Amino acid sequence: MGKRLQTMLTADEERTLRELRRATTVPQRVKDRAEVVRLSHHGLYVEQIASFCDWNVRTVRETLNRWNNNGLGGLWDAPHPGAKRRWQPEDLDYLESCLREEGRTYNSRQLSQKLETERPLGMTSGYNADLTAPRASRPLWKKRFLCGFNCINASAHWFHISIP
Known about the structure:
Layout: H1 11-22, H2 28-41, H3 46-53, H4 57-70, H5 89-102, H6 108-118, H7 133-136, H8 138-147, E1 150-152, E2 160-162
Antiparallel strand pairs: 1-2
């Protein structure tokens, strides 16, 4: 066994971590970290916790150190840097005009390939974003309710979009 890294919790902290573990709106990663802290409090060694959770020993140590240094806030991930990727209005207008003029349906992959080949600077200008297929039809799917698109065979990852 390695060096013992045990956390001591108050009754309130124990209750908070137990409630956090059962919460439905908390990310699973945070719930797992809360359980690791509780297991450490109950006397398990880092190696035992890692084996129980199917984690690396280093990950368990990092989680316990984050708890010791930052408390409850240490269970959550830090915000990721940079702005979220957004579609440019010009790209959406271009795709809408293509759908109107060509009179055919496209799936997500076809939309992203069309935008990438016919407007190489398209969405990537200023945002350094990749044109992945699942993201290609989402902005048009959202506009469907505002502009009256006909969406046929809509499912979680496959959209056939046409404009009447």
